[in-house]
Amino acid sequence: MSGAPVTTFWRLAGMSYLQYVNRAAGSVRTALKEPAKSKLAAQGEFSYKIASWQTGVQGEKTLITSLSTAGTK
Question: 11, 15, 56, 59: which has the fewest Cβ within 10 Å?
Fold first, then answer.
């Protein structure tokens, strides 16, 4: 057994693990055929509601359906 440190190929490529997983998932999504592709697309949709609280009282709820609008309120 050699004394050389072992490193992963995604580190050698200069990527973080999260970048590697995102690229791999994107490759899998583009390679899928119907009906699996449309089923996976439906699972990727999300929504949630946020509300501001002031002095213990909940304010108006806002529906968030995209990440670009998540931090605007």
Answer: 56
DSSP codes joined into one string, 16-70? -HHHHHHHHHHHHHHH--TTHHHHHHHHT---EEEEEEETTEEEEEEEE-SGGGT
Torsion region of 56: left, alpha or beta (phi above 0 gives left; psi -120 to 50 gives alpha): left
pLDDT(36) > 80: yes
Tokens of 3: 């004394």
Select from 39, 46, 38 the least CA-distant residue to 68: 46
Give tens-digit pLDDT for 44-70. Answer: 677 788 888 889 999 888 888 776 666
